[in-house]
Specification:
heterodimer; A: 645 residues; alpha+beta; Beta-Lactamase; 5-stranded antiparallel beta sheet; 14 helices; rod-shaped; B: 121 residues; alpha/beta; Rossmann fold; 5-stranded parallel beta sheet; binds adenosine-5'-triphosphate; binds magnesium ion
């Protein structure tokens, strides 16, 4: 079973409609049932009142009869009763013996009712005309055994009846028929027993007869003002005290007390018994309510039938009404599920202009918005992805660069400390010489030869020291600035080469330097001092690392560049060492070079200077055969050479 | 006569040591490389070796270690002679078995005093 929470909207709507319809049906049924019940009760009560009144009249009459024993008086007395138009006592030969209207006594009465009653010996009632007035007449045969002694005719006024609506008239007629019979019956009984003096017995007999003969009375009880039962349909109760609620209520002053006893199907009806306005006791009548209950259950069954049909119709109607409401919602639900599952192309069908139609339209709008936003998000995430990828790549690149930089830094750190070691060694060696020999010169008695020798050492080492200091200064400048403050001017490379070769030829190197420069070399834009340094370094190496052989220098133009080449026939450089020649602090570690002073910075400075002039440098070397270094700088194209000298 | 071996790739330094110690009666032996120093030490068994650390080829530390490892030469008093005055190099030298450390540049007078102290012990 589904719990109400799990029920679909369809089931909920139908259930609600059914519940409502059932409620309405039951309510209307209950209302009509109560109405019916009330009208039935009123009817019964009305009857009971009449019967009671008749009974009271009988009892009262009993007294009057006892006192006056006069039929005519009795008739006249009865005539005073409200609603009674007239009373007639007719003998078996239709002669009027007593009448409300005295002048009629002795006359022959004739009416279809009278002749009917005489003929059949039955109670007859019906509409009639008396003294020119419309009445409802009841004729009751007065009998002794089977023999008809005469007739009692009681005519009721029709004033109320005539005023009533035709529909009510039918009911009134039926009521009058019943009432008149009871009244006539009880009166006839009074008349029949006119001579019975015993009040109590008479009343008891009246009670007996009424109970036995009346179809509508199941029980009668007469109680005196002391609650003692003086007459009762159940003889055994006579003389006992009545404990009835109704009796008590009447004795306590109530005018009327009614109640239903559903089990016995009796309508209990209590009224005070008054004779000459004096309270004498209680008349309690048990009115047969079988018919009432039968009618009631009939109404109930009918009502149930109608309600059931109503509910059935309601259920059918509910489905009929619910479906058009629910179907679009169900469709919408399916579409929503599709949407939730990710199919953003889902759209709801718009079939109506009601709220559901509006919902579908709103839904479609939402779906479109969703699809649009999703597109946007997709696009965005794509670009985001791209961006992220780009960023990641950038980052990776930066990382790689950082690692490279770090490695370089570390290398340069290692190189630096190595450099410090080397420089400290290189510095301390000349310093040792300077300090040691100068101390010897100062403190010892030396020969002139020794003095000269030692001063020569001091001079040599001073030069060496200044070279180291120069290199260190260059290196520190290169470390600080990329182009280390180049001052570029038009320069003739041939001049620089010649100046340097002259200098080195002048120094005693034991080498011949051959210089070959092209005529009218184009000028280059360069820092003269720096290019001078480059040539000096290369030339210095060529001399340092070549014990034998000449040095050949060239200056020439080629491919829009001006070149200087310096070739030696010295120790050369091995293939393994060649790639590191331009690295800072690099020196080939071999026995042959061990005694050659240097910091390993010369070539790195050279390369840096050449490249900062947008130039090129190249080295060719073979171990044991020699080395050639060539570097070129871009020529100054639109420069007209001025021959200064 | 006491023998002193000076091992240094720098000729000027060797000459300086030679001139400095020439006053006393000492025999000064020269070696311009680690290999030569090792050979001469085994050959002539000097009393003291002045050993330069920074040399191409076999360096001073290695020469010291080899000499101190060899029972025949381990008794030789070795003075490490180097430009490197750093703590790490001192440690390296002592780990190799050096007896003394002498830092370049040095005063010839101080060197003389040191040598005399060692020889008079
Ligand atoms: N012409 C050459 N022949 C053979 N080897 C050379 C030549 N030029 C350079 N080298 C080798 O390359 C190394 C680096 O040279 P670089 O000029 O940078 O340093 P260096 O000459 O040792 O010192 P310095 O800073 O005094 O120039 C040298 O130590 C040497 O081993
Ligand atoms: Mg050089």
């Amino acid at each position: 079973m589904q719990s109400p929470k799990d029920m679909g909207i369809r089931a909920k709507i139908i259930a609600a409609m059914i519940a409502l319809l059932v409620f309405i049906a039951l309510l209307s049924f209950w209302a009509s049932y109560m109405h019916e019940k009330k009208s039935l009760l009123t009817n019964m009560q009305d009857n009971a009142v009449i019967l009671n009144r008749a009974l009271i009249i009988s009892i009262t009459n009993q007294k009057i009869i006892a006192e006056k024993v006069n039929l005519q008086t009795l008739v006249e007395e009865l005539s005073l009763t409200e609603g009674i138009f007239g009373v007639w006592v007719i003998d078996s030969s239709c002669r009027i013996t007593s009448a409300t209207f005295r002048e009629q006594v002795g006359e022959v009465a004739s009416s279809h009712l009278i002749s009917n009653a005489l003929e059949n010996g039955y109670y007859v009632s019906g509409f009639d005309t008396k003294m020119g007035e419309q009445v409802y007449s009841a004729v009751y045969p007065l009998k002794k055994g089977d023999k008809i002694l005469g007739l009692l005719e009681v005519a009721f006024e029709l004033r109320e009846y005539l005023r009533a609506r035709p529909r009510d008239q039918v009911q009134l007629a039926a009521q009058m028929k019943r009432d008149s019979r009871i009244m006539a019956e009880s009166l006839s009984y009074s008349i029949e027993n006119m001579r019975d003096v015993n009040e109590l017995i008479h009343i008891q007999r009246l009670v007996d007869r009424l109970t036995v003969e009346s179809e509508i009375i199941s029980r009668i009880m007469i109680v005196d003002d002391n609650s003692r039962i003086t007459a009762c349909s159940d003889l055994s109760k006579v003389g006992t005290i009545a404990a009835d609620k109704g009796v008590k209520a009447i004795i306590n002053g109530a005018e009327i007390y009614t109640r239903l006893a559903p089990r016995q199907k009796i309508y209990m009806f209590d009224m005070p018994l008054r004779i000459d306005d004096e309270f004498k006791g209680v008349v309690s009548i048990g009115y047969d309510a079988t018919e009432y209950y039968a009618r009631l259950s009939e109404i109930f069954r009918f009502g149930m039938l109608i309600s059931g049909m109503g509910i059935l119709m309601g259920i059918l109607l509910s489905f009929q009404v619910a479906n058009p409401i629910i179907r679009p919602i169900q469709r919408l639900t399916e579409v929503t599920k599709g949407l939730a599952a990710g199919d953003l192309s889902q759209r709801a069908a718009v079939n109506s202009k009601d709220e559901i139609g509006a919902l579908a339209v709103a839904f479609n709008k939402m779906a479109e918005d969703l699809a649009y936003s999703k597109d946007k998000i997709d696009q965005y995430s794509k670009t985001l992805e791209k961006k992220v990828r780009q960023r990641t790549q950038d980052l990776e690149k930066t990382n790689r660069e950082l690692i490279v930089t770090q490695n370089e830094l570390m290398e340069s750190n290692i190189a630096k400390s190595e450099f410090l070691g080397i420089t400290s060694h290189e510095l301390r060696t000349p310093l040792t010489t300077l300090l040691g020999y100068s101390e010897l010169l100062l403190t010892r008695d030396l020969t002139e030869k020794q003095k000269k020798e030692f001063l020569g050492f001091i001079n040599e080492e001073s030069i060496h020291l200044s070279k180291i200091v120069d290199d260190l200064l260059d290196i520190s400048r290169i470390g600080a600035q990329k182009d280390f403050g180049l001052v570029k001017k038009p320069v003739d490379l041939a001049d620089i080469l010649l100046k340097n070769t002259n200098f080195y030829s002048g120094v005693e190197t034991g080498k011949s330097i051959i210089v070959d420069t092209e005529e009218n070399l184009p000028l280059v834009s360069a820092d003269k001092e720096r290019i001078d340094q480059v040539v000096k370094n290369i030339l210095d190496n060529a001399i340092k690392y070549s014990p034998d052989g000449d040095i050949v220098c060239k200056a020439f133009a080629k491919d829009d560049m001006v070149w200087i080449g310096i070739q030696d026939y010295g120790i050369g450089i091995s293939k393994q060492d060649l790639p590191y020649i331009f690295d800072k602090f690099f020196r080939v570690k071999r026995k042959k070079t061990a005694k050659i002073v240097g910091t390993g910075l010369g070539m790195s400075i050279v390369k840096h200077i050449v490249e900062s002039h947008n130039g090129k440098i190249d080295i060719e070397s073979e171990l044991g055969k020699g080395t050639t270094i060539v570097f070129g700088l871009p020529r100054l194209l639109d420069y007209v050479r001025k021959d200064t000298d | 006569m006491k023998k002193i071996l000076i091992v240094d790739d720098e000729k000027k330094v060797r000459r300086l040591v030679e001139v400095t110690l020439s006053i006393d009666e000492l025999e000064i032996l020269h070696a311009s490389s680690g290999e030569e120093g090792l050979m001469k030490a085994r050959e002539s068994m000097p009393d003291i070796i002045l050993l330069d650390v920074m040399m191409p080829g076999l360096d001073g530390i290695e020469v010291c270690r080899l000499l101190k490892k060899d029972p025949a030469t381990k008794h030789i008093y070795i003075i490490m002679l180097t430009a490197k005055g750093q703590q790490a190099d001192k440690k390296k030298g002592f780990a190799a078995g050096a007896d003394e450390y002498f830092v370049k540049p040095f005063s010839p007078m101080n060197l003389m005093d040191k040598i005399n102290k060692i020889l008079n012990k």
